[in-house]
Amino acid sequence: MNSIKKIIYQYGIPALGHLFVCKNKYCNVIYYHDIVREGGHSYMQTNLLLFQQQMQYLIEQGYETLRFDDFEDDDLFRYRNKRVCIAFDDGWLSNHAEIFDWMKERGLKYNVFLAVGLIGNDERYLTWDLIREMHESGLCGFGTHTYSHTDLSHIDVAIFAEEVERADALFEKELGYTPKDFCYPYGRFTKESIQQLATKSNYRRIYLSTMSYSYPMGKVVVMGRNGISNDDAFCVFKNKVKGYFNIFTSLVQ
Ligand SMILES: [Zn+2]
What we know:
Blueprint (H helix, E strand, L loop, with lengths): L2 H17 L8 E5 L1 E3 L8 E3 H13 L3 E3 L7 H4 L5 E8 L3 H4 L2 H7 L3 E5 L13 H9 L3 E5 L12 H19 L5 E3 L7 H10 L4 E3 L7 E3 L2 E4 L2 E2 L6 H9 L5 H5 L1
Parallel strand pairs: 1-5, 1-12, 2-3, 4-5, 5-6, 6-7, 8-9, 9-11
Antiparallel strand pairs: 10-11
Helix pairs in contact: 1-9
The structure holds zinc ion (ZN).
């Protein structure tokens, strides 16, 4: 990013987003992937110390954090200043090993979208036992992220349906409840597939990986999300948390 673009990104976009903050109707969502002790890289790996600093900021500012289960309450699902939903994509083991106890001590709730077929089959990912412990603690919520972490933007309707149904069935068998939250792998989606999910699944909320305002579609709400990059300036993190970056997609389209 050249310096002018960087200034526009860091200061211009959130300033405009602040003016249009009333366009945020639903709880603002930020997301991460893996949490690592050494280094950190872009959106995929966040350094543990940086993550803890960001969480500390939320505590100091008096943020309320929610888990997906809370969203069944319409009032809790609404956008509020100082309210945020923290999500993690894929189901990395670090989402328990590195942060569960730390978040629990501080009462910070968070959520994980599971690439369900990877769970228990790859040591880099969570196990069902850990996931049950996390859910039963009341601290963590879970959603699905397909069965095999497939790019859903280029597959036919039948395979798409199979990916979703297989993921939901295993999720329900292991956790004993129906997932209501779904997130597209790689952030790749088509409008037709959102419509398919909205009419033919049990999902209540469909999450994208674009910084955009969330909006209702039939019986679901299509949720914009703010990816937190390990390389973001701290002011960018603060404004993503506030929902000021959700104007981004409207500006670039
Ligand atoms: Zn993913």
